Amino acid sequence: MDPLEEYNRLTSRRAFLSQCATGMGTVALAGLLGGETVYAGSREGVREVGLPDLPHHIAKAKSVIYLFHNGAPTHVDLFDYKPLLQKMHGKPVPEEYIGDKRFSSMTGEASGKLLLAPLASFNQYGESGAWVSDFMPYTAQIVDEICFIKSMHTEAVNHAPAITFFLSGSEMPGRPALGAWLAYGLGSENADLPSYVVLTSKPKNVSCGQIFYDFYWGSGFLPSRYQGVKFRGGGDPVLYLSNPDGMSADIRRGMLDDIAALNEMKFDQSGDPEIETRISQYEMAFRMQTSVPELTDLTDEPDHVLDMYGSQVKERGTFAHNCLMARRLVERGTRCVQVMHAGWDNHFNITSELGTQCKVTDQPAAALVLDLKQHGLLDETLVIWGGEFGRTPFLQGNIKNRPRWGRDHHPYVFTTWLAGGGIKPGITYGASDDLGMDVAEKPVHVHDFQATLLHQLGIDHERLTYKFQGRNFRLTDVHGRVVNNILS
Question: What gap in Å lies between CA 74 and CA 344, rounded to an integer?
Answer without folding.
Answer: 8
